[in-house]
Sequence to fold (140 residues):
Amino acid sequence: MANAEGRIQGIKLIADGEANTHQQFVDDTMLQGIPTIREAIAIKNILNDFAMAASTEVSLNKSKVFFFNTNFAIQRNIARILGFQREQLPSKYLGIPLIDKPLSKKEWEPILNQLQDKIKKWTCRSLNLAGRLVLTQAVL
Fold:
């Protein structure tokens, strides 16, 4: 809606593609936009509107902003407007490395091994529904 109204532009991952403005992961939201003061103000207003409508607050101590090829002064101003910490790659999200290129097989191996180890220990017969839910959430 904000994209359609022209408040935020988002970013295009491919030239002829649709602009991405956000991605949702359970209770996390990844916002994507061009690094301008105008876009930062629009995103901040959207977050404030959401917080008011949902009777909640954005966790500023858990919120981070990443920049790519952006002037340092603009980075500082946008981070101040949003109230987020500036972060750089490489980083991690839910235990998965965030880097500026696709993960290689070598980088996926320890993650997949950890997942396999957790699954091997999980037998449906020994866990009740609540236990399976907890394990599923821990694995994902």
